[in-house]
Amino acid sequence: MLSRAVPFAWTLANTLRAAALALLLGGFGVWLATGAHLGFTQTSLVTIKRDEVTGIDYPERRPGFVAGVEIPLGTAAAAIALALLSLAADRRRPAA
User: Fold this and answer.
1) What is the pLDDT of residue 90?
2) Taking residues 11-31, what's their average pLDDT?
3) Is residue 4 part of a domain?
4) How many domains does the structure of the chain reveal?
5) What pTM was computed for the model?
6) What are phi and psi of 8, to 5 degrees?
């Protein structure tokens, strides 16, 4: 005999798990979209230019943003915290 599927319910635990997944994917998405830099976050970008008269190379800074490795690590830590909270919220709910 086939059993009926229980409809999905948005409990606190499920909401926390969905938020953890969204946070994790968002953090990795931002990191990948801005260049997946393995160092720290950069708020300005350096390009090397050459002076046409003297032939000397010099760095030139321009505004920009490259997310560093702390972005996915921080969002992963926050997602783990939300997932652990979801487990605690799930334990509070009595079994039906």
Assistant:
1) 75
2) 93
3) no
4) 1
5) 0.72
6) -70, 135
Token look-up 């160092």 returns: 39
Give 3's pLDDT tier (boundaries 50, 70, 90): low
Sole residue written with tokens 């008269």: 53
Q: How far, in Å, are 5, 9, 83, 88 from residue 12 at the CA level?
A: 20, 9, 11, 10
Question: Residue with structure tokens 């690590």?
Answer: 73
In a domain, 74, yes or no: yes
Cα–Cα distance, 48 to 41 (Å, whole number): 20
Residue 50 lies in domain: 13-92
Write out the two tokens for 33: 């979209």
Average pLDDT over residues 53-70: 93
The 10 Å CB-count burial string (b at 16+, else e) for 49-83 is eeeeeeeeeeeeeeeeebbbeebbeebeeebeebb
Q: Which two tokens stand for residue 9?
A: 């319910």
